[in-house]
Amino acid sequence: MTLEFLLTSLIVVATPGTGVLYTMAAGLSRGARASVIAAVGCTLGILPHMIAASTGLAALLHTSAVAFQTLKYLGVAYLLYLAWTMLRDKGTLTVDRDTAPRSAARVVVSAILINILNPKLTIFFFAFLPQFVSTTEPRALLRMIELSAVFMLLTLVVFVVYGYFAAAIRNHVISRPRILTWMRRTFAAAFVALGARLAFTNN
Predict the structure, then answer these.
(1) Rounded CA gap, 113 and 140, in Å?
(2) Which residues contact 120 (CB under 8 A, 6 or more apart)?
(3) I need a labelling partner for 26 at 20 to 30 A (CA). Which of 18, 33, 95, 124 fits?
(4) Residue that wins the pLDDT comparison between 3 and 34
(5) Which residue has better confidence, 68 or 152?
(6) Interaxial angle between packed helices 18-30 and 65-88, expressed in degrees from 0 to 180 and rounded to the nearest 10
(7) Residue 52 to residue 66: CA distance in whole angstroms
């Protein structure tokens, strides 16, 4: 494992995207515990992409326009759904002092779906990881899995940091409904923007 791999992975993970937004929304909504749950869910959502890249399915996705477009538009639809939910259902981003544990399953499922329905993540694994695996590597598959595991660990750590930051400022907006409304609209707009960007990406 090289320093170049770690730095590049850290930059990719730390760049705000749908996973970061969702984790921060969870932290603002229900506190640090919910943000950690969301971070875990987003990290688990990487697994299908890692498996696809390791088994060669990413190559099919990369060469098949139909497969790529199908997954892409499913992802776009889900991002728009999240935006709509954020705007219409105030419970999606309502800051309460009571962090109900019963929402944990929903948080995890939503977080996993966010990353599963992101075809660019599969393409990333397909194009990025092989650069750090030598063609003469006798255990190339194992090496790729090891690098993927490191990438997932970085994702979990960085997302937890984002989530804890959101949870830390949570109390400052509990008594400020206008700020909460503005933040809910901002998150919704961000999901729409990310959905639009995904819609116009090419294989």
Answers:
(1) 29
(2) 198, 201
(3) 124
(4) 34
(5) 152
(6) 20
(7) 17
d(CA 44, CA 197): 23
Residue pair 58/126 in contact by the 8 Å Cβ criterion: yes
Pick the more confident residue, 124 or 169.
169
Q: Which of these, 187, 195, 167, lies nearest to 87 by C-alpha position?
A: 187
Looking at residue 17, its amino acid is G
Amino acid at 133: V
**How far is Cα 29 from Cα 19, in angstroms, rounded to an integer?**
15
d(CA 181, CA 44): 30
Work out the number of other CB atoms within 10 angstroms of the CB of residue 180.
18
**Would you place residue 75 in the very low, low, confident or very high pLDDT band (cuts 50, 70, 90)?**
low
**Closest residue by Cα to residue 5 from 136, 149, 119:** 149
Closest C-alpha to 41, from 75, 58, 18: 18
Mean pLDDT of 92-112: 64
